[in-house]
Specification:
Distance between the termini: 41 Å
Mean pLDDT: 80
Structural class: alpha+beta
Helix content: 25-40%
């Protein structure tokens, strides 16, 4: 029984370092993109799930319908900016005719949206009035508001020539009072045109002239100068501390769309710069992890603000809308007073208001449950919605005191999970309600009946409205109004995404790494089973990650633990392999001290003891090496590896000696031999070439034998190939070593060049390569071998180029295609040397069809000479050689 080898202490330290490196990279958010990709895969693995079906007694089943402002709707509405009367018509039809329980309008109706000179102020005024009436009538409606990069207006007051005096102006009693704390700013309406008496100096923002699409953007990035309209300084995301670069104020509509009973707005911002893999520095600053895409993943459920902005928005909006003189607005320090021109009581607004802007989905959930903001309770860990008796109906866990992660329930365009209706059809049917035949009226009533007791989300879906983004279920970008539908489904189902604590992530990584690493590096009895167990554990953990999300919506870490475990196993195996290679070379070196059999016989016959010394002789040097042998030890036990190499060496040595070659030594998987010494022969070059062809043929037969033995050998053994290099020249041969131990061997430049031929054969896509000297002498001694001219090379450290040839095959084994391939290749090579790259490439391509070895067909063959030379032609054509180019390919590696 083989004793397990101990893991060296230096290797243990190295593997601990690899583990800590993965932990550090994960801790600092380096895998944000990979984690996002994995999490998208979790959603797809889990599949689509339905919305809440009413199985809880606390609240009714959830019914969500999307009203899409799609291409047909846009064709009906015409050019933007659209009149807000269209939105009012949609809301009226859905609420009055359909009986919708809650309606969310995912459009930013910005005051800047109708400042275009193309907009008729009177029509804009009328559309605002119509929309304001719809908001007042249908209190189940919520319109969107968003923190954006549009500056607050710098209100400039001017007295219009035709403005009525303060005492002659209509009473301000109908002015909308300021909202109380906890009320969200309205969805940015399109805009009320400012009258002459009051104007807004707002810089032109081209992409805001039409503001039909909801703003999912983050807050302002840069603070304006004192000469520019200012940005309000309220935090959009807390980030533990207020971030000055992330401060803004929700872009909000003015009177008449907001007021005491009209301020029903919901935030539509998403936390695009937040990723759970980000980190917090010691000073509290946040470092976001890499974001894989623009997919909305985290949403702030609220934002607390304080300041004068909301009061300014209401008071100035009131004066603008009613075209009142600006003197009616008076600053009283901590309050703003709007005077009543008819002598009635003035309307007083607190100058500084503390407000909470809730997410659109939160506001819709409250309306759906018949509750309001007073029913919302918050801690740092959770937001709860309770009924008037205090019973908690919805409990929402919070991340960073403010955020929630979106749980995506289904594909956007799945009619079963996400019912859709075109806004065009709503407008047309609502306008013609009660008209037509009895059958048509019945059909219209049936159409609106689908909205009964539903939450309706009205949003842009057409690509030209630019409110799209990817989702885990959809390969292309989809409308982002789906964010709020998925949030509502999450609230009511309670199916929140859960994440484990950072210390548990770390513990999982270290435990998994230790288990897999120890099993993978075990080398004693049953090492194969241990490595198999390591693979099973790794795959089981990956399966656990996916199943945990599918059944419990729990996200377990995948990238760092699996990457760490795999890296430790891989690095440990590489280090072990290198150590084994060194050990193997030392062991094989011991066999190299034995003399070749011919030398022993010669000494016995002469009666001489072997002595140190050598002499010059013209021989053919032989080097062979198994392709990719270093990987064999990964799939074979030491016993298997020994049996395999013994069988291989036996077959090769038998051929070598049959062709009168002398074995110098085995070096690992390499065979070093010589032809022409110690027994001289005139045809040593030819015999070396014949032996090369026979060895390749014999290895092919061995492969077939190993395949026929079934599962005895892994696939890598079935694909074993070797490369052989030959060179003929003057070499020093003799007994070399110490006085006590020596070997009959060879040395000199000719030997080195033969070794280079073997190692360089890979660059030409061949498995037998020799120099011109070998080919010339072999051809002079016989015609048994087919050669193919490859190129001129200049090996590293040498200045004289050498022409090299492929030892293609024995002539008796050559097929017509092989001979034709050699002929075409050599013709193409002449064109190549003549720098006729295109003509050469054509012939190389023709030759490639008849190559004896083809990638993909023959085992473990990556390239062949014709294929590589086509790439060489392309390279030469793209980067022409200098005018004095001699066609020599310089090899930069040994």
């Amino acid at each position: 029984m083989a004793a397990p080898r101990q893991i060296p202490f230096r290797l243990v330290l190295l593997l601990i370092g690899v583990t800590l490196l993965w932990w550090a990279l994960d801790h600092w958010g380096s895998f944000g993109t990979l984690n996002n990709i994995v999490e998208d895969g979790l959603f797809r693995f889990r599949g689509q799930i339905p919305a809440y079906d009413g199985t809880k007694p606390d609240h009714p089943p959830l019914k969500i319908i999307y009203v899409d402002v799609d291409a047909p709707t846009i064709s009906l509405l015409g050019e933007r900016p659209w009149s807000r009367e269209y939105y009012a018509h949609i809301i009226d039809a859905i609420c009055k005719r359909g009986g919708a329980k809650a309606v969310g309008l995912d459009f930013i109706l910005s005051p800047t949206g109708m400042k275009s000179k193309l907009v008729d102020p009177d029509k804009a005024h009328k559309s605002d009035e119509t929309m304001g009436l719809a908001m007042e009538t249908y209190k189940q409606t919520v319109i969107a508001t968003a923190y954006s990069n549009i500056p607050e207006p710098d209100w400039t007051i001017t007295t219009a020539p035709d403005a009525p005096a303060a005492t002659d102006t209509a009473a301000a009693a109908s002015a909308a009072p300021a909202p109380t704390a906890g009320t969200a700013s309205p969805t940015v309406p399109e805009a009320t045109a400012a009258p002459a008496a009051l104007t807004t100096d707002t810089p032109a923002v081209k992409d805001q002239v039409v503001s039909e699409s909801p703003a999912k953007s983050g807050p302002a990035k840069d603070k304006p100068t004192s000469a520019e309209p200012r940005f309000a300084e309220f935090p959009y995301l807390y980030k533990n501390k207020s971030d000055p670069t992330k401060n803004a104020y929700p872009e909000s509509p003015t009177y008449p769309l907001i007021g005491t009973d009209r301020i029903r707005t919901g935030m539509v911002d998403v936390a695009t710069d937040y990723n759970p893999d980000g980190t917090y520095a010691a000073d509290g600053s946040y470092k976001p992890a890499a974001i894989a895409d623009s997919m909305p993943r985290w949403v702030p459920l609220f934002a607390d603000t304080t300041g004068t902005d909301h009061t300014d928005n209401i008071s100035y909006g009131f004066i603008i809308f009613h075209k009142l003189p600006p003197e009616l607005r008076q600053d009283m320090g901590d309050k703003i007073m709007l005077l009543n021109p008819e002598g009635g009581d003035p309307f007083i607004l607190p100058k500084i208001q503390s407000l909470t802007f809730y997410n659109l989905s939160v506001k819709l959930a409250l309306i759906y449950l018949g509750l309001d903001e007073k029913n919302v309770h918050r801690t740092d860990e959770a937001m709860t919605i309770a009924d008037n008796s205090g019973k908690v109906l919805i409990n929402i866990p919070l991340e960073k005191k403010q955020l929630i992660e979106i749980n995506w329930f289904s594909k956007w365009d799945d009619p079963e999970f996400n019912p859709h209706v075109s806004a065009r059809e709503v407008i047309i049917r609502g306008t013609s309600y009660g008209e037509g035949t009895a059958a048509e009226q019945a059909e219209t009533q049936k159409f609106f009946a689908q909205f009964k007791d539903a939450i309706v989300l009205i949003g842009p879906v057409d690509r030209i409205l630019h409110d799209l983004g990817p989702t885990p279920f959809d390969s292309g970008e989809q409308p982002l109004v789906g964010v709020y539908g998925n949030l509502l489904k999450t609230f009511f189902s309670g199916d929140y995404i859960h994440r484990i604590e950072p210390w548990i992530r770390t513990l999982i990584q270290f435990i998994l790494t230790a288990l897999v690493g120890c099993l993978a590096l075990y080398s004693g009895h049953g090492a194969g089973l241990a490595k198999g167990a390591a693979v099973i554990i790794l795959l089981s953990y990956i399966a656990l990650v996916f199943e945990s999300f599918a059944h419990f919506t729990l996200i377990l870490p995948l990238v760092a633990p699996v990457g760490s475990a795999f890296s430790v196993a891989f690095v440990g195996a590489i280090v072990r392999l290198l150590d084994e290679e060194k050990q193997k070379k030392r062991i094989k070196g011991m066999f190299g001290t034995y003399l070749a059999p011919e030398v022993v016989n010669d000494m016995v016959e002469s009666g001489q003891e072997p002595q140190l010394g050598g002499h010059n002789v013209n021989i053919t040097c032989f080097f062979s090496d198994v392709q990719g042998f270093s990987t064999f030890s990964e799939v074979l036990t030491p016993g298997q590896l020994t049996n395999l190499m013994n069988e291989y060496f036996t077959a090769m040595t038998e051929i070598l000696q049959h062709e009168r070659g002398s074995l110098d030594k085995f070096i690992g998987d390499a065979i070093v031999a010589m032809y022409g010494a110690p027994i001289e022969s005139k045809d040593h070059a030819l015999r070396a070439c014949i032996a090369t062809c026979r060895m390749q043929k014999s290895l092919g037969e061995l492969r077939q034998k190993w395949i026929s033995e079934g599962d005895k050998w892994p696939k890598k053994v079935h694909q074993m190939r070797m490369r052989i290099g030959l060179n003929t020249g003057e070499t020093i041969v003799g007994n070399m070593g110490s006085a006590a131990r020596f070997n009959y061997t060879m040395m000199g430049d000719a030997v080195n060049l033969a070794a280079r031929c073997e190692s360089s054969a890979k660059q030409f896509g061949v498995y037998g390569m020799c120099t011109e000297d070998t080919k010339r002498e072999a051809v002079a001694q016989g015609n048994e071998v087919v050669f193919r001219r490859l190129n001129k090379i200049k090996v590293k450290g040498k200045t004289v180029p050498v022409e090299v040839y492929e030892i293609t095959c024995l002539r008796e084994d050559a097929t017509p295609d092989t001979l034709r391939c050699v002929e075409l290749f050599e013709q193409a090579l002449e064109l190549y040397f003549s720098q006729k790259w295109d003509e050469a490439k054509v012939l190389f391509a023709e030759a490639q069809k008849m190559e004896p070895l083809q990638p993909g067909r023959d085992p473990n063959v990556a390239h062949n000479p014709s294929e590589l030379m086509q790439e060489e032609c392309d390279e030469m054509k793209a980067n022409p050689p200098p005018s004095n180019w001699d066609g020599v390919k310089e090899l930069t590696e040994k």
